Amino acid sequence: MLTTLFAALLLAAMPVAAMAQPIIIAHRGASGERPEHTLAAYERAIDQGADYIEPDLVLTKDGVLVVRHENEIGGTTDVADHPQFADRKTTRTIDGQAMTGWFTEDFTLAELRTLRARERLAEVRSANRRFDGLYQVPTFEEVLTLVKAKEAETRRRIGIYPETKHPSYFASIGLPHEAPLLALLDRFGYGAADDPVFIQSFEVGNLKALRGKTRLRLVQLVAREYGPPDLSGVTYADMLTDAGMRDIATYADAIGAEGTLIVGPDGLDTGFVAQAHGAGLQVHMWTLRAENMFLPPALRRGDNPAAHGDYAAALRLLIATGVDGVFTDFPGMARAILQP
């Protein structure tokens, strides 16, 4: 009788051509090869064949949507090296957790323009540090402009997959995401249900608000632990019952799920994708990375946590579940595997 691990490895060896092809979502751009959330990371992802690029959206003091994984920018920019901003360092409570650093909502766009991006995972992706100091923090408008330019160059549609970061927090300080986000998307020609756009959030309230204002597709992000920051006492597990998924389907088109919800520690399909499909929802997995430290033990290669493991096998395991999309830091690797 096959062990579960051996069965998982057999699945990983299946020809990709025999499986459904998920969309490739470039997680913060080609962030395995360039500092995340820079125009360089997005352009490289597009050139490598990503179907969608993913900008995380926060706001400046003057209400401009800019692209950072968090509104705290101490780890992704050189702000600490600017003495004129030393007094901006502060502690804020975001989604119930105290965070100390520098926050985008305390800077105008002009002030942010004086900063330069840095590699966030410097110990893991030391090669990316050679790009430190080269790139500004982009605005969402600049990302959309880049996409349109690359569409004209490549003659193919390139999808946009923005995430509203901490929307209830930003709304509480008078900087809501919804109006500037939808206004920019409309200005660039996005508004129909079949346009290549997914808007995602770990919260529920802003997705429901967006559902009343746009036909663009919406994605409820979920994790194995915790719950939506805007719904006290509700866990993501509560939302992922059959009834909970049917409720999600009333305001969202897809679930963005942590990978461990889709493939278990034994490397086998948990049934999550089939359950979500039964509720009428697509499933997009986050996040596939190539480094050993992010892969299950059976797919690691060697003892160096920063070295690459068996990324191809991990992708094949996900594809075998029928997942509709995969967020990845290495879109070029994913495209090479998916191509015949």
TrEMBL record:
The keyword Ribonucleoprotein belongs to this UniProt entry's keyword annotation: no
Every GP-PDE domain range: 22-338
Catalytic activity, reaction form: a sn-glycero-3-phosphodiester + H2O = an alcohol + sn-glycerol 3-phosphate + H(+)
EC number: 3.1.4.46
Gene Ontology BP term (one): lipid metabolic process
PROSITE patterns per record: GP_PDE
A family per Pfam: GDPD
A GO cellular component annotation in the UniProt record: periplasmic space
Keyword Coiled coil: no
Signal peptide per UniProt: 1-20
SUPFAM superfamilies according to UniProt: PLC-like phosphodiesterases
Recorded superkingdom: Bacteria
GO molecular function: glycerophosphodiester phosphodiesterase activity
Alphabetical UniProt keywords: Glycerol metabolism, Hydrolase, Signal
Top enzyme class: hydrolase
Family listed: Belongs to the glycerophosphoryl diester phosphodiesterase family.
Protein's UniProt name: glycerophosphodiester phosphodiesterase
Organism: Sphingobium algorifonticola
